[in-house]
Amino acid sequence: MNVSIAKNRRTFTLNEKPFFYLADTVWSIFTNASLEEWAEYLDFRKTQGFNALQINVLRQWDASESDIRIDPFLLNEDGSYDYRSLNEAYFDRAEQMLDMAVQRGFIPALVLLWCNYVPDTWAEMFQKGNKMPLDCVEPYVRYAVERFSKFNPIYLISGDTDFPSERANAYYRKALEVVQAVNPDSLKTFHIQGRLRDLPEEFENHDGLDFYMYQSGHNSEFQYMGHEIAGHFYTRPRTRPVINGEPCYEQISYSRNVYGRYSTFDARKAAWQSLLAGGGAGITYGAHGIWSWHKKGKKFGIVEGEGFDAPYDWRDALRFEGAWDYGFIKYLFESYNLAGLPPADIVLNETPEIRAAANDETIVLYIPVNTKVRLNADVSGYSFTTIDLENKRFAVTEVVVSGGKSVIPMHCFEKDVVVIGQRK
């Protein structure tokens, strides 16, 4: 069965039951992982509660060096791709890897056209030449969709793109049309460039666009975009589910060669702020070493790219603590029925860092740094629980109500918390 859009147009269903999208970013898996490594990875992520995998159908332009030399197209004498000659052995192997994932309960989310294959995009400055000719888009996409549709994937038409020109948009338009024709029941979206909040009007109004996917990305100056862009897409005229498809990856360094790496807390904070600001249909995790499928001693970023420091070996990155935190997010969203909860402008503290979402039955707040939280709401009809997100501890919480406003006192935990109120 396909993942579908729920009747509320804010969340997903699978087999007519609520489906919270919890993806991991494994862009490079088709070109970099052995089948044995892939099985090890899948089994571990399954235990953590992940249910979707974001994969680049083509070679990831900034992946780590691979032990495997296999490509989606045959090569010209100069090493460039012959886009008119698909490599069936590559797609045979990819199909086997997707079958392994689906057998374990994962939904593939497949990127068809990463921006480096398309002219005029921001990646042009790093990877010049060897673009896919426009007339090759249809046969490639048709072939891929016809082979992979039996796995009921979600299709990410674009990868990290900025929609810079009509010439570039023609590629994505053609790919979307082909997917619509070959696999009309599949969900489709665009994976857009970090911090971008606008889609070309033709794509935003296209009936083939099923949900919004954005990325708050890895630039240390713009982490507030996690909640800001979620709110932007939540309020668009066309109501669709919203997902932050690439928040800051755990242990990735700040982009643009800025010193520092994102911690477990940073990744957790990006997730919760995105979810409560309007991106409540699901969330995507990333670990620096998994997305590029890095192995110790191998080169990282064969094409000079965005200025990231070295990744961890994939087996070390697989066991970062943040993946468990994201699994816990899914547990809480499913246990408390939080998916698609509308953002709520009820926090009186003068900071956008504290986020709230609420309906008539449930109130949820994310508090990244401990403080007394003041609410412009009478919550006397609710019972509250404070959840320590680092140690997974639950505390009964008393809220003070006076004059139509409420105060949640400082909690006893040292890190970020979620406070959940349920109508009595």
Explain the overall architecture:
The chain has 424 residues and is an alpha/beta fold. Helix content is 26%, strand content 23%. The chain is built from 10 helices and 21 strands. Strands 10-9-8-5-4-13 form a 6-stranded parallel β-sheet. Strands 14-15-21-17-18 form a 5-stranded antiparallel β-sheet. It has a 3-stranded antiparallel β-sheet with strand order 1-2-3, with no helix packed on it. It comes from Paenibacillus macerans. Residues 7-337 form the Apiosidase-like catalytic domain.
Give the percentage of residues in beta strands.
Answer: 15-25%
* CATH fold descriptor of the largest domain: TIM Barrel
Mean pLDDT: 96
CATH architecture of the largest domain: Alpha-Beta Barrel
Overall form: globular
Q: In total, how many beta strands?
A: 21
By DSSP (H or I, 4+ residues per run), the number of helices equals 10
Assign the structural class, choosing from mainly alpha, mainly beta, alpha/beta, alpha+beta, or little secondary structure. Answer: alpha/beta
Low-confidence spans:
none
Domains (count) = 2
Radius of gyration: 21 Å
